[in-house]
Each structure stands twice: as C-alpha cells, then as structure tokens.
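note to self: dont lose this again. the chain is below, predicted strucutre after it. 228 aa total, dont forget to put it in the shared folder this time
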Amino acid sequence: METKPLHKIPSDTLEHLLSGIPFFKVVRQQDLRQFELLLQASRVVSYLPGEVVLQKGDPGNWLYFLLKGKLAVYVDKALRGDLVNYVTPGEVFGDLAQLMGQARTATVIADPGAKESMVLALDFNVFGPLNSVSPISRQTKLAYYRNTAHNLRWKLEVYRSQHLQHELANKHRQIKLYVGPKDTSEELASLYQQSQALALLLLEWNREFGVLSADTLDQSNSLSERES
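---
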C-alpha cells in the first residue's frame, strides 16, 4: 500500500482519473472551489495485488472511489473462497457503512489479476452535519445524495429483477421520491432519508443472498452504462 499526496499527482492525470466518478464530475462542473475542498479531504492510495483495502468489522468513516484497477469483495474476512462481487473503476464503495454509521460488512482486496489498484479515499467528516453549509455546501451535498439514492435504487432494481416473487422485491418502490422545490434543505433531508431507507433494504437483500453476485452486477453495470 502506498499513499500518494494529491499534489504529487499531475493535475491532468488526476483530472482524467476523477472524470470517471459521477459525483466528482458534477461537483467540478458546479463549483471548482467545492471540488478543491473535497480533494483536500481526500488521499489517493495504491494497492498491489492481494493487499487489503477494507477489512470487515473496521469502522466506516471513509468513503472510497476506485480510480484504477479492480477490487474483489468477500463477506468472510478470512477470504475463504467466498468472492461475491468486484468493484470496477468509477464505482463508490464503503458507502453503506458510512451512511448507516456502522462497521464494514465486507472485506475488500486488490484483485490478484490487476497490476495496480488505485483508490481515492474521502474523509466524510468534511461534510459535517447534514444542514451545515460550510465548508461543504448544500449543492455539493445534494449532488452526493442524489447520486447515492440513484445508485441504491439501481442496485435494488437489480435484485428485484432477479427475484421478482421475493417479499422484498417491491419495497424500495414504496420509498417515495422527492417532489417539492429543488435545491432546498427539504430536498436534501428527503434524499438523506431515502438513502438511509434504501441502504437498510439493500443490507436486508445482502443478508438474504450474500451481496449481489459478480455476474449480476456486471450485467447491471453494462445496462447502466448504455442508459447513461
């Protein structure tokens, strides 16, 4: 594992790596100062094949985005052949533990088949209380929670498509979308509440089926790319 200060990474290289992360892309377009504040609260970490990125049971204060390479996800921290998913560039991970204020529910390692895996780790403490607008603005928080709610709904739709008759299949559709004025504290509160409710449902699905399978997520990611 090697931690790389952001100032030592060429700006054009960093910009290219972050362009594949929807949240950072939106913030950079909205407010360059906010983008820089997020980077100040972040670090880039490189992992060699087989190195542990996250350990099941560890505290969940950091949010992670894969910039390069490939990560393997295991439910059992002993890594006894129970590979359940892969993380690919552009994806966020560690978000459930952060959102729910709980320990990590899986162990993540740098995939042995990838020469190098590079991760952006964001200290989520910089966000502060939900309604605080400094240093992280409401617009930036809205961008984050819009993205979070969208991603969680998508994962739940994938589970639903695989298990249409399951008792959990339609529960996420009962969590109402926000329909009030945009860019307000009310929208932010709604998105946060939606995200927590959706995360709880996703954790239920994960306990039932051991996290979305790698094949299922590969199919959903391909479809998502075509629709975006």
